[in-house]
Task: structure prediction
Amino acid sequence: MGYGGSIKDAGQAVGRRGDGGIDGIIKEDKLGLDVIYIQAKRWEGTVGRPDIQRFVGALHGFQSRKGVFITTSNFSTEAIDYISKIDNKIALIDGDRLAQLMLEYGVGVSTVEVYEVKKIDEDFFIDE
Result:
């Protein structure tokens, strides 16, 4: 998506025990002067407001105001409403949006087949 230069340099996974509630870091610019923290959840259930509040708390621990919360499921109405009322800039990416972004940016996917669609060129058949 243009963050941090190459895919390799754009960020890193940090999610481990004792990670402070952060699963990854994205370099917002090529120099890494500003970072965006990520929380990722592979869930089947809805991500609620308490989960988002914990993530916002983790951001405060890193003195950050920017974050992306990614889930394979979806977000509750309360979670979406909560982020609209806080000062932090939080992007919520649900499973559908995640799939769209993966396809759009070619991340975690590979092309199996490409179809070529043709149409008749009407100008070709014009007699002069």
Notes: The two ends are 49 Å apart (CA to CA). The first strand starts at residue 11 and ends at 13. The chain has a mean pLDDT of 86.
